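Hey,
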Amino acid sequence: MNPALNNTIKKKVAYYIKKYQTNDPFTLAEALGIEVAIGDIGTRSGCYMYLKRNKCIWINENLEGNERLFVMAHELGHAYHGHMIENQRPLNRKYCMPLAETASMFNENIIYNSFYQKADQNNKPIILDIQLSALCQVICDIYARYTFEKSVFKNIEKGFLFAEDLNQLMLQALKKALGKGLDEKYLHPYRWITKVHYYIPDIAYYNFPYTFGALFSRGLYTMYQTDQTFFTNYQNLLRASTTHSVEETAAIAGIDLTKKDFWQQSLASIQQQMQQFLDLLEETK
């Protein structure tokens, strides 16, 4: 990292630690007026909501240790995104769906990399495994969901889709997204029943923002490490997310989303982490 930028980041971090007398995200959330509740929220890991002028984060009670911390970082990203747009006019306080997971995924990148840098050789593979498992879900599994939903919209024009039709479309989507990475004996044709997002009538492709956010935030994280103007651009980008198109918003950070190179570089960075994980396993043998 650029020494000057590294010094700037340390100063900002030191400022907030000194101001709130903590570096714990749960205590920080409390200091920022965000209510945090830990309890039974079903299969969700966590969620952030702004209810009647109250900022609230819910964390699944089944999460422990680092998992709980990673989820808290994710939800704090949503809270920060909300903070950046709260002074917009009432009709300009909803960002478009593709950008919904930008700040949350960016926060995840920060905390994963921070944990990795501080970990010893025995724990580095564990942290990479957690991050790569999450990326597999948002890149491969959600691509399968997107492919399935797209095929439903295409085929419903030809006639009613029965359960068996949906099963076949789901199997095709899983095979396309996961290839040989999943044993066909364990393919789940009825996954269209278990995903509640398919049944939200006014929102299609609900999970797409996670894939978009995972790849987009990796580009932002690279800038975070090297660009001294990043913080100002990042705040302006989040503020613009309710009034600009996706392409215009990304351009504030100097990113051209219409270029394949950007997306390929983000995917290549995941491949590099996969190789890094394999190399670490070899070293620990």
